[in-house]
Give the backbone structure.
Amino acid sequence: QVRLQESGGGLVQVGGSLTLSCTTPVRTVTTDAMGWFRQASGKEREFVASIGWSGRPTGYSNAVEGRFIISRDNAKKMIYLQMNDLKSDDTAVYYCAYSPSGVRPTLPDHYLHWGQGTQVTVSS
C-alpha cells in the first residue's frame, strides 16, 4: 500500500486562507487523477476537488466552488489545495488521494492510494 503524505493543516479563523500540500511516491500516469476529500466529525468522507494529470480537468464540490483551487506539480509529485474564505463548515480532516484511471474522480472508491489526512479547523 502506497501512502501519500498531506501537510499544511492547522487552525485558521473564519474568512482566512490555508494551503494544503500532498506528496505522492506513486509513479503517475497520464490517465490519472488526484483528489482531495474531507471528513468532518460524525460525517461521511466527501469529495472536495480533483485534477487530471495535465492539470485538467479540474472539478470541485458545490460547497467549495469559487473558494478553493486545486493544482499539481508533476515534476515534484505534489498537489495543492489553496483554500480561501474559509468557513466553519470547512472544518474536517482533509485527505489527498490518487486514482490511476482518473475515472469518476468524485467517488472515493475509485481512488487507489490515500494519505493519512491533515486536520483543518476553522474557528469563528
Q: What stands out?
A: The chain has no helices and eleven strands.
